[in-house]
Each structure stands twice: as structure tokens, then as C-alpha cells.
């Protein structure tokens, strides 16, 4: 390994130490919450750059971040078009429909013991159909455009949200349920005022996992047929053209979008489940 | 001596020559131990080569030349396929009779390195592929021929030896279809050739190994041409997924034989020049921007065919 | 006192099945409570007071005997929203503010919005928590949480009020005040009240009927009908002879229950 | 009986819907064919023809069942056409990946709950890692590992682990933080070492979260394995089976492989569910 | 009583930040407790008793003033495992049996296995829960849970025992018995005990020092050093003149604290 590699390693050790100190000393501060992950990210990138150039890895296998950044900068219009097609249309629509359906089904399942025993195993089964298997089928059914991508996302996010929501709806304690009993609350009332709030910490678990699944689903579905735009389309064609910097630019867009999406859910979660011990402990 | 061969696609009669050579012991006779690695839709042979995962790969020339321009120095050492099997298959009911009817239609195209012949053809025809009114709308075609059967596309890409027959098997008759062979349209590019990394060729030992490999492979190909049914069965035995059917593979072998016929393994420089010319003709956005140099060598086949 | 019984238990038995074998929590409990009575339950820890209160509220189903409330089954009475229940633990919902917790039963029972606010304010004041309506449960002291849960049960008009050691975590002075308030509320509304306590003076001061229980299996050992006047009872009554006599009788009953243990 | 009846009812309902959908979706082809041949179709013809196509848009349930049955029972289990063989190939990689992913998820979650630095720096990047489309990098992973001489089960397990560690991580970070203030305070008064806090409080109270995550994680591991099987040269495994089915347009084979995979997933989730029931019961938390 | 102070608070302040503005829970609290004392804290609900106890145990950090325990910071004292703490709510871990809950601190502090069993048995007996070791918390009555949590704190040898209303949910008789047991334990072991209660007689009966607090912001209004004899105190002492005098003084102090409220 040449000097770039060693320099990167040294940088890595130095920044890790710095990060640990900052986190321990100023962990609560706002600037630290931003600074630490950013520095960590920069470290990863420097390490990557150093190792790739240091070991002389072919850019056809793994391009260095500098090359990716250059490609990113020159193709922003292309990247934006792909982003709109895949994420704004496919992933978002699918996410909303899939999560909504999962919550509704979870409630139906919670409501009726019959469904609980009948639908849950079957639901588990249906939801466990692997996406790579259903994606071609859904493309066949819903056509090449974003609708079929949304359908794939629906199927992908459904299961994690369902499982968590069902667990959440069962997460009330005996005393809380007894209270509703004494009021002779209707099912609707105890759902709205007790089970749903109590289920929120679990639901957000599912919703957070689903954000990244939605992105993966929308992108992967484009591998099985798509119009000539979209992130998955671009990735698969660029791989064929050995344009790895473009591939990684798309991946960077996906990572940015995913982190933003996830971060948004975390913020909403904070606002909704402020009362949960996991949010209260400093 | 070990040789790792990366195929362009899954195990099927398209690669019968190599499986026959292995099964019949032609490689062993040369003292070679060949590991045949099937490919798939997500495997880019060029990338495997770049990663050092294989010694030699089966690829199409457009994709190999494009990679070469990107800095991955692939060199053609042999060309068992003389003819192109690629075509566009259209539904007659869409009213398409000739290339002039493509305008405004939706066409299915393979990407991932297989789109170059199509793009070159459209460029020669002067039809834009951006979906505009006077152009064609391009779909990234998935694994199979469903878009045609579902009428999601007016035409799809097919190979004479494979997808075309899937359309027929699905219940359509040749009369329902209109086909455009790239050969007939004068835009045929070279398909399945053998490619290695340029720097490795500097090593005489490697060169020698490739000579043996090409010799045994061509022996396999000629055996397969002569005994198509036996070759198809050898392929079936080597298919680990157990998904291929005998009927389909035997028919495929028959069609493949038509494409390898007339090649002794040596690349015909005239075919090469034609391919390069087609690829350079791509209008505003040609597949390659200048004629490549050193993209093939006849040394290996010359030695192998002595 | 010879009115129609509002609670009527005949030979009530309750056995819990546990990993460790069955536990007989109640055995052959017989009790009649007339409408408008104030019944206190007193007995050593673990004798089944909570369990019996839960049976009345149809939160637990007796494994034997019959239990009628307002002439119907306990569960039907529950469906008719006959109960206000103060649990032994506060059991406030952590996602609602104190005011929100108190408003909960009002929302469920469909009280009109402005009425809800007025009632919340009123009971918050009653239990000395004015100004704490916007706090969350975990921001309150133990006693304050308990008072909030009392307020929650008082906010709506249930015919039967069941209170499981509601004043356990309160100091004498607040407790005395709440005792007085409770008596006022009771004589004003004519509710029937079931009240679990460990304080003998509290039981005697409040009740028209005192039920003494003994442990494992929980049974009723004594039922004392109080001769003290109904309605307003000044705190000073606790020094009267009658009061002390009843208190003595209760203490003896309690001690007997403990006898075999201590 | 109590458990079977509802399942049967739901399954029956789905089968009925499915047949309806099969007739509806496959009818277009029948009509097209009739139009090409210039003939008319009667309803009876329509129904019988939509149920017996070789490449249906949606195969009828009995066709899928027949395909499954043929794949499971119609072959020697060592045969390359046996779904049991392919299922086993997939299952072994899934299990290896799941174990790996669970371990990674747990260790990271424990680290994040205990170290502020890790919480602040690792979590955002763990999230980013999951937004990388796996199908895009799976081939690269396979290629790179293959060039290092690592082949077969390990690359698939790595990709399965990559997909399954994330649900575990997210769930366990939440679960390990679920103990309430008083439960933590109690241990503080004992000056409990962190390891003991983890072991005696955080882990037990995270159990409901753990099992919910494990269920999602095991399903994700299966998806990962199948994804990894696509570019692994379409050799063995349910993923390869799906792919070659797709490639040759053999709808019935796709659906049979799909069902085999789903059955596998359902079985794995059921195993986790059984484990959950036993654990919660032993912890006195079963209801 | 002029011994080295084991707890020493100087001008302790504590402000909670809430969604609703800051809450001053403690203001300028000054207190000295000598080793081996039995200090009771009494005061109206919400006055800061729990908060002050939590400060001593380093579960809360004062926002002002200094607090020393055993000559060091409260947190260092915590690290040396100086505290046994009985919380206001039982706080048993639901996944552990009663015996398992009591064994918890013993496991953490590394008591040898056979010793653990012996201690668990002993304290279970002390709080009258023999035979309930294998039950889970939710299978116990409220009072039984509270006793289990007392047992948990008594199972190991902490120098300072902090108890937050430990006997709130117990009946008089059990309470009397446990009071006696606690006194015995205290005089046998010489522990320092901090004890929150709402019962004036209990505070007077048990303590060598009674701290009366008044609410919002919580401060100390009176500290009474008891003239009652240390060591064994018969229950009858509660009828003595001295006892009644102290009780009166406490009651007055309490009433004063309430005055501005009621
Ligand atoms: N976590 C918190 N956040 C905000 N305010 C709090 C918090 N904990 C306690 N308080 C406030 O501090 C004050 C004192 O509470 P504390 O629990 O010490 O009272 P206490 O004397 O123990 O009362 P009780 O006898 O009712 O248990 C109360 O007004 C309470 O609302
Ligand atoms: N869910 C349960 N499962 C098993 N046993 C139970 C359950 N609930 C209560 N018990 C047992 O029933 C008996 C009576 O309990 P209960 O809660 O009614 O007592 P209590 O009189 O309210 O006592 P306390 O004054 O301590 O609250 C106890 O021995 C208890 O262990
Ligand atoms: C998704 C997809 N991409 C590319 C091809 C093209 N391709 C690669 S090898 C080969 C030979 C024919 O079988 C062909 C046509 C395809 N079929 N499917
Ligand atoms: Mg009770
Ligand atoms: Mg308190």
C-alpha cells in the first residue's frame, strides 16, 4: 500500500478519537449532533479514497470518491430526473399506500380474533414473497412506468409495518386495558385513545425500516423493466457501460434521499412518542 | 493449467461449444482445467474481467469495444460466432411493416451493455430514441417476452435462437409477427467472441494457454454443430438450476449452429471493420467515438489453427 | 337500609391459576349493599379486597357463586357505564397530559366539549392539582399522580364509585380534606361507594358499612353497619364514643384475621 | 381446530378471489387468440382455457400447486429440478446470513445504546447503508469476493446479513432503551456495571422488540439470499430458479418457486414466533 | 448526635425544566444527618420529598448547592454501593419472579450463590411473603408487591437505607409489625435510614430526627430531634406525653405548609 493508504488510515484513527471526545464531552449540543456524523462520514470517504488510490484498485471495480463527485456534479440534471421518477413517484406512492394498508390490516387483525388467527399467518405468507420474484410479475401487471414500482414498494413495506403494528397494538398493559373496560369504552374508543397511542413506538419502528425498504424496492423493481429513466435503470445500464462513477452517484443520491427520509421519520417519531421512555432518557 | 471462463448469460445452448469441450475432455487433452462460470442479467462480463474474476470471457463486440474506450483494455482473441442472431420482433397487428413504421411506437430493448446494436441501428435510421413524437419510445425490456404478449410494446428484442421461440411457444404464430434481423438490415455487429485483458497477453505462458483453450473450444463448437442433440443434452446436464427444457435447448442448438457455421474461430477483419463502422455511425452519441486500436489479435487463432 | 340491594354477592369464589398451582383469592363471599351506601373494605394485605372490587366491576369473573349489580350481571352493569374506578396504582396514560387523562372518560362517554373543560377544571381543583393540567404524568410526584387518578374517576357521573386505596399516598391533611370532600360528594349525589382502605379511622369516618376481610382464602369475617349519622360528618366525630367503639371492633376483626399469621 | 378453521376460511376466500382474477387476467390472451383465429369463445371455453394456459398472466391455484407438488415430491430431492434441493441451498445461506446479521445488529445496537459517539456517528451511516440498492451492489460484491476466491454460501450469507442486520439494529436500539426511569434508577442505586444493566434489565425488557425485529430480519435475510442468488451465476437456489423461470417465461415455475420461498419464509417466521412464545412464557410475560 | 455528618446538604436547589416552564422542586435545602440516624421526611404531597431522596442517592443532580454523602459526592457514594433504595412504586421487574427480583441486587453485587438463597429466604420471611417467591409480580396484591420491594432493599448490606413511603399500601397491623422489625434491624445494624412517610405517628415512632417540608418550592420548615430513646421502642410509647408533643409539633408544621393552599 502506498502513502495515500497509510495517510488515510492515520486520518481515520485521528478523527475517530476526536469524535469520541466530542461525543462524550459535548454530546448533547446541537453542533455536535451534526458535526460528529459528518466527520465520521468524511472519515469514511477519506479512507475510501486512500485505500482505492493506495491499492490501485481499478475504477471499473470501485471508483474513488473524487471521481464520483466529479461525475455527480456534471450530471445533476440526469440525477434529478431519475430521482423524481424513482423516489418521488414510485417509492413515495408505494410507501404511503403500503404503510397505510399495513396499519389498517393490523387494526383489522387486532379487532377480530378470527382474522388474527386466519389472516396473520396467511398475511405473513403473502408478504414473505420475495420481491425479486414478484417484481417481474408486478411489472407485467402494472406496466413499465412508476405504478409497478409503487406496487413493489407496497408489497415490500407491508410486512415490517404489519408485524410491528400488531406487536404495538398488543403493547398495552393490563391496568390500561382495565381502565377502558370500566368505562365500557367501545372498541373504536379504546383503539383511538389507548391502543393506537401505545402502538406508536412500535409503529415508528416499522415506518423507519420501511423508508429504506421503499427505496430499495423502487430501485430494484426497475431492474425488471422500466422506461429509460429512473435510478435503477440508470444503475443497471451504467454498470453495463462500466460507468461506475455514475453508478455510485446514483447510489449517493439513494443514500442521501434515504437518510433524509429516515431522518424525517425520526423527527415525526420524536414529536409523536415524546412520552415513551426511550425518548425521555437523555 | 486452470482457465476461468465467464459466460455472458445463463447456461444454455448458446454456449454449447464450451460445455461440449469440457464434457468430451477436449480441454483435458490440452492439459487444461476449465471452470465455466455462468452469467446472468446482473453479471457484466466486463466487470468480472476488470475485477480479475476470470481469465477469458464471452462477450459481444459492441460492449467490449465500449469498455475498451472506458479504459478496460479487452482484446478479442477468437470469434466462434460468424453471424448475428439479434432481431426485433413486432406484432403484425400494430401495423408495422418496415423500419419507417417505428415512429411513435414502443420498442423493448435490452440494456446492460446489449443496447448498443439497437442504438446504432436507430442512429443509422435517423430515428430519435427519446420518446418524442417523431421518435420511438424505448422500454427497458426485462428478462422475457411478456411485453410483447401483454402488448405493452409493439416490438421487442429477440434472439433467433431463444426469445423468438418463446414467443412462438406462447401461442403466437410466425404469421402474427414481423421480424427485423440486424443482419438483414445491414447493422449486424459481432456477437459471442472470446475476450481477454490486453496486459495479460504479454505473458507468453498465458498466450500459450489461450491457444490451447481456443483450439479445444473450437473443437467443441464443431462437435456441437455436428451433433446438436447430444450437445443440447450436455448443456442440460450442466444446468444447475434445472430450469431448461430439452425441447427448447435442442431447438436453440439448431439455431446456434447456423450462427457458428462458417467460422473457424478466427476473427474476420472485414467483420470487425463493419462492426466498428456501425458503432461509429451513432449520430450525436455514438457508441464509440474513434476507431479502436489493438482491439483484436489474430495471433492466438493463427497459432491454434496451425 | 332495607332498600333494593345494588350489589349482591352470593357465595362468590375466585381461584387464580398460576404457574405455581391454584390460588384461592376469594371463598364464599356474601354481601349485600343497598343503593347509596358507602361501604369500606378493610383487611390485611393480600386478602382479596382488590380482587373483590374487580369482580364487582366485572374486571374479574368469579369462578363460583353469583354476583348481581343493579339487578343485572356485573358485566351488563359495566356496559351501562355504572362504574367509576380508582385503581390501586395511578395508571395514567403517559401520552396524555393530566387534563387529558381526566378528560379521557368524558370523551369516551360523549360529554359535550365545554362541559368537559368545566368538569376537568372542577375536579382538578377538588384534588388540589390546579395548574398541573398541562403537565405529563411522569412530571408529577407519586401522590399527585394518585390524586389525578381520583380526579379522573370523579369527573363523570357513575352510579357506583369503586376506589382501591385512593388516599394511600397522601399526607394526613390532604387526606382529611379529601375525605370531607368525598363525603360531601357522596351525600350530594347519592352514589354508592365501594372503598378499600388500610386506615381504620378512615373506614369508620366515611362508611355506612364496614366489611372486614381475612386472608387466604379471602373471606368476609365481619360486616359492621355504622350507627354514625349519614350525610355531613364533622372531623371531630372521630373522637366520639361510638366512633371509637366501631374502630375497636374493626381492629379486633383485623387482628383476628392476622392471628394465625403473626 | 380453533386455529385451523380461520386459516382455512381465509385461504378459501383467497383461492376464490384468485380463480376469479386468473380468469379475468388471462382472458385477454384467450380473446386475442380467438380474434387472431377469427373465432368466438363461449364462457365455458373461456373459463377452461384461462385455467390451463402454459404461460398465463396469473396461473390458477391448482396449476401452482401442481408445479409445487412436482417440484417437491415429483423429483428425487437431490435432483436439480427438486424444489427441496433448491430450498435447502437457499435456506442454508439464509440461516448463515441471519445469524451473522442478527449478531451484527445486536452488537451495533448495544454499542449505540452505550456509546454516545457510536450513536451519533454509526446510526446515520447504518441508515445510509440500507439505502444502497442491494441488487446494484450484489453483483459487485459477488464479483469481488469471487476474485478473492470466496464463492458459494459465504457471499450470499454476507448479502443476507447486510439486509437483515438493519431491522434488528433499529428494533433493538429502541428495545434496549425501553426500560423506564425507575427500572434504570434501581440499578443505579446498586451501582450496577453496564454489562449487568444490559443483561438484567435492557435485554429482558427489549424482548418484545427483539422478536418483532427477528421476524422482519429473518424474512429480510431470505430476500437477501434470493437477491444474491440472481447474479451468482444463476446456479442453484430458489433465486436462481425464479430467475430462470422468469427468463424463459415459465410463469408456473416462477410461482412455484415463489411459493416455495414464501413457505420457507413463513416457516422461519413461525419458528421465531414459537421461540417468542416460549421465551415470553418463561419470563412470565405471556398473556 | 455530634458525630461526623454522613449526609450534608448545603443550600441544595433543584429546578426541573418542563414543557410548561421550569418547576422549582427544591429551594435552599440545608440538612445534616449523623451516621446511624433514622431521619423521617414528612410533608404535603408534591413538596419534594422524593426529589430530595433521589438527590441523596445521586439519581437526580441538584442544580445548586452542595451535597456530600459519607464525606464524598453523592455519586461517589453511589459508586461505593452505599444505598439501599425502596421506591415509592414497587418497580419490580415483571419478567422475574419475586425471589428473582429480590435476588437481583445480590447477583449484581456478587454475593455467593448459597448466601443469595439464604438471604432471599430470610427477607421473604421478614416481610411475610414466605411461599410467594415463585410468583410473578402481577400475581401479587399491591401491598404484597410493596413488601417485595422492601425485601429487595433489605436483602443486601447497604450503609444507607432510603425508603420512599414503603408502608403506604399496608394495613395498620402489618405496618406496626414492619415498623418494629425495621427498628430492630436499624439498631442491630447501625444503618443510617432516610424514610419518607405521610403518617405522623409512624414518623415520630421511628425517627431520631424528623424533617418537615413545605411545598413549592420544596423547603425544610422544621427539623425535630426526637427526645425518645434510641434502640427498642415499645409500640405503647405512642401514648406517651413526649410522643404526643412531637406529633403535635409535626402536625402544626405540616398544617403551616398547607396553610396558603387550603
Ligand atoms: N421529572 C420531573 N419533571 C418535572 N417536574 C417534576 C419531575 N419530578 C417531580 N417533579 C415536580 O417536583 C415536585 C416535587 O416532586 P416530588 O416527587 O419530589 O414530591 P413528593 O414530595 O415526593 O410528593 P408525594 O408525596 O406526592 O410523592 C412536584 O411538584 C413535581 O411536579
Ligand atoms: N392475576 C393474579 N394471578 C394470581 N394470583 C393473583 C392475581 N391477582 C391477585 N392474586 C392473588 O390473590 C390474592 C388477593 O389479591 P388482592 O390483590 O385482591 O389483595 P388485596 O386485598 O387487594 O391486597 P393489598 O391490600 O395488598 O392490595 C393474593 O394472594 C394475590 O397473590
Ligand atoms: C435483462 C436482459 N438483458 C440482456 C439480455 C440480452 N442477452 C444477454 S445474453 C443473450 C443471448 C440470448 O439468450 C441475450 C439476448 C437479456 N436477454 N435480458
Ligand atoms: Mg389491593
Ligand atoms: Mg414522592
Description:
The complex is a heteropentamer, with 1 copy of chain A (282 residues), 1 copy of chain B (306 residues), 2 copies of chain C (262 residues) and 1 copy of chain D (287 residues). With 282 residues, chain A is mainly α. Chain A has helices at 3-26, 30-55, 65-74, 76-111, 113-127, 131-142, 146-169, 174-182, 187-221, 231-240, 244-272, 277-280, and one strand at 226-227. The longest helix of chain A has 36 residues, at 76-111. The radius of gyration of chain A is 23 Å and the shape is flat. Chain B is α/β, with parallel strands linked by helices and 306 residues long. In chain B, helix 1 (16-23) packs across helix 8 (204-226), helix 1 (16-23) packs across helix 9 (228-238) and helix 9 (228-238) packs across helix 10 (246-260). The longest helix of chain B is centred in the C-terminal third of the chain and has 23 residues, at 204-226. Chain B is 38% helix and 16% strand. Chain C has helices spanning 49-56, 74-79, 98-108, 113-126, 142-154, 172-189, 200-206, 241-259; strands spanning 5-18, 21-34, 38-42, 64-69, 72-73, 83-86, 160-164, 192-196, 209-214, 219-225. Chain C is of the alpha/beta class and 262 residues long. In chain C, helix 3 (98-108) runs parallel beside helix 5 and helix 7 packs across helix 8 (241-259). Chain C contains 8 helices and 10 strands. Helices cover 37% and strands 26% of the residues of chain C. Chain D has 287 residues and is mainly α. Chain D is 79% helix and 0% strand. Chain D has 12 helices and no strands. In chain D, helix 3 (61-72) packs across helix 12 (251-282), helix 6 (134-147) packs across helix 7 (153-176) and helix 10 (207-229) packs antiparallel against helix 12 (251-282). Classes of the chains: A mainly alpha (282), B alpha/beta (306), C alpha/beta (262), D mainly alpha (287). The A-B interface holds A 58-61, 136, 139-140, 143-144, 222-228, 233, 236-237, 239-243 and B 41-42, 44, 46-47, 50-51, 63, 66-67, 70-72, 111-115, 129, 131, 137-144, 146-147, 150, 152. The structure holds adenosine-5'-triphosphate (2 copies), ligand VIB and magnesium ion (2 copies). Ligand VIB is lined by residues 8-9, 14, 41, 110, 112, 114, 142-143, 159, 162 of chain B. Chains C, E: It comes from Paenirhodobacter hankyongi. Chains C, E: Residues 9-240 form the ABC transporter domain. Chains C, E: One of its GO terms (molecular function) is ATP binding.
State the fourth-level CATH superfamily of the domain at 7-82 and 158-257 in chain C.
Answer: P-loop containing nucleotide triphosphate hydrolases
Task: Give the averaged pLDDT of chain B, no decimals.
Answer: 86
Helicity of chain B, as a percent range: 25-40%
Return residue spans of chain C where pLDDT drops below 50 for at least 5 consecutive residues.
none
Q: Number of DSSP helices of chain B?
A: 12
What characteristic shape of chain C results from the CA principal axes? globular
Question: Span from first to last CA of chain C?
Answer: 37 Å
